[in-house]
Design brief:
Elements (H helix, E strand, L loop, with lengths): L1 H8 L5 H13 L4 H8 L3 H13 L3 E6 L2 E6 L6 H32 L4 E6 H14 L4 E7 H7 L2 H13 L3 E7 L14 E5 L9 E6 L2 E6 L5 E6 L1 H24 L1
Parallel strand pairs: 4-5, 5-6
Antiparallel strand pairs: 1-2, 3-9, 4-7, 7-8, 8-9
Helix pairs in contact: 1-2, 2-3, 2-4, 3-4
Length: 256
């Protein structure tokens, strides 16, 4: 009986419901105390289980003299459980279909939630730059103070980094400040454009880069720290700002 009870539980009956149903099925019409004894379930709990089975349509009741008798319905009635569950699932699917447009509208109104990652130290800076290659971007825009970068990291480090950019054929544009006039990255000049702006007029000491849907900002003085914000909207905004600065930097270079 217990093996059958476990199988009935797969249809949604509780363990005690299954035991009471099987006991009643085997006994035929019987009073609750007999069913309780056969099912090995205490009498009070058996009453509760019978009431539940009555609601499920798996048991019925009738009076015989002064006694109330209970009997299990034929096993074919078990199909009612499956049909009821199917009806419930259909109703839930109908509710989802009805609510989905409104829920999606709320989600769209909330917009994209930016993902923010923080980095510290030279290892953190290296991890930030590695994300450039992880995103498989093909185009970058960059504001940078080259003088601060030269003091911070050895020249060999940047030769290696620029070689990877060239290998991946990543194109880019850089607006930079520097006291030196030479091209700051000869190894990628065939892929990148550079425009220099006056250091005294724009005293920045960091780097701001946009690539893909990410905006990376690094402080190159004081405590070395950086942050990457992943957001299509913010990346689009920074690119627009870069375009404005790029146009102005081009005008300044023509005057020099």
């Amino acid at each position: 009986m217990k093996a059958l009870a476990r199988e009935l539980q797969k249809l949604g009956l509780s363990d005690k419901e299954a035991l009471v149903y099987l006991a009643s099925l085997e006994l035929g019409p019987s009073p609750v105390q007999i069913i309780s004894r056969k099912a090995e379930v205490n009498r009070a709990t058996t009453y509760v289980m019978i009431e539940s089975l009555l609601q499920k349509g798996l048991m019925s009741t009738f009076d015989k003299g002064k006694k109330t008798m209970y009997t299990a319905e034929k096993p074919e009635r078990l199909h009612r459980i499956v049909h009821a569950e199917r009806a419930t699932v259909d109703e839930k699917e109908s509710v989802i279909k009805r609510l989905l447009p409104d829920l999606e509208a709320i989600s769209d109104a909330a917009g994209e939630r930016p993902k923010v990652s923080f980095y510290e130290g030279e290892e953190g800076l290296e991890a930030m730059r590695e994300t450039i290659f992880d995103t498989r971007t093909e185009q970058m825009e960059d504001f940078i103070s080259f003088d601060d970068l030269r003091h911070l990291l050895p020249k060999e480090h940047w030769k290696k980094h620029n070689a990877r950019l060239a290998q991946r054929k990543i194109k880019g544009r850089t607006i930079y400040t520097s006291e030196q006039l030479e091209n700051p990255a000869d190894s990628i000049k065939h892929l990148w454009e550079f425009r220099r702006i006056p250091k005294a007029q724009f005293p920045m000491h960091g780097e701001l880069t946009v690539y893909g849907s990410r905006v990376a900002m690094i402080a190159l003085r004081g405590k070395l720290a950086g942050v990457i914000i992943e957001s299509k909207e913010m990346a689009t905004m920074v690119r627009s700002m870069f375009e404005l600065a790029w146009l102005q930097a081009g005008k300044n270079s023509q005057k020099q």
